[in-house]
Amino acid sequence: MPSSVLQWKTMRPFGFRSLIVLGFLGGLFTYYKLDIKFLKSDTSARQVHPTVLNTPGDSNCSTEGQHNQPQEAAVVDKVEDTEPDTIVLIWMRPFGYNIAESCSKFNIKKCQLTEDKALYNKAHGVLLHHREIQENLENLPKEPRPWFQKWVWYNMESPENSGLIPELDDLFNLTSSYRLDSNIPVPYGHLEPVTPEDESFKMPVKDKSVCWIVSNWNTQYRRVKFYNEMKKHIKIHTYGNAFGSKMNYQEYTSIISSCKFYLAFENSLYHDYLSEKIYMPMKLGTVPVVMGPSRQNYEDHVPGDSFIHVDDFSTPKELADRLLYLDRNDTEYTAYFDWTNRFKVQRSSFGTTHACETCRYLQRNKGYQAFHGLNKWYWG
Fold this sequence. Notes:
By secondary structure, the chain is of the alpha/beta class. It contains 10 helices and 12 strands. The protein folds into 2 domains: 86-186 and 351-379, no CATH class; 190-347, Rossmann fold (3-Layer(aba) Sandwich), CATH 3.40.50.
């Protein structure tokens, strides 16, 4: 066989492969060239019609790229201004307390708080205080609930001091209480970071070691039994209706701040039930000695080095000995106020905080909600 023929047979497969590769590369080049054209065309189209990056109420959207775009910002503001106010109807005053008409101190805008029941059909939320609800439900709204409206059950008393009403079990859309697992949690207080504008903590003048102010006296309460044993080992200054000494708010705050330690003994022991008994001493510069839920639960709310828990001691005498020791050792005593370098106490305004936090919640959560099993959740 001639050598030229043999060479052709040898090279023929390679030639076919080369043609296939060249064809593939040509098609690929044509595809990407067209794609780049379309991309450029699409980009130019978007430049003609600017996009608003954040829609009203969408707090999770990034604000990057909004600088130097005043036209877009104006569009956003205009849309937000057209949103109607959120109406929260306070159906009944809690224990007769007045509720503020504005939520400005909470930095919550476009809220209308009202007691005008003529606005029932327009209200986005209706606040119903448990302790004011009659057992026969006669004082609840009679008209049908509008589709967009949410009824909010709220209560700041512990289950032990709140009567269970079976008919309320599946009546509400939302809950609001001191419990952190409420839809709208409103504890008796909370800690906020200090700001440069806040005054530095100054220790009040102390002329008493241990104090206790109490009105609700029951010999079966754990706190009463604990006190009766503890007073044998340390002087406890006592005040309040239980000891025949009524006082006004000014006297109340003055006494607490003048004591090194305050017995913040709750009248009932429930998860998350930390009342003003701990937040007032912390705010007034006194170390609270707490009796309530577990230490771990307290530390869900406040720093562990800001209070003394009775459960850390095996007997009332052991606790008394510890307080006597701290009374003599200023360095260790003042360490209980280290938290004031980082935080400050903010107390809740009964009723007003519930109404404003309800407004905030309704503005952020406009979908359908229902709360089932209220009685088991709260009373167990």
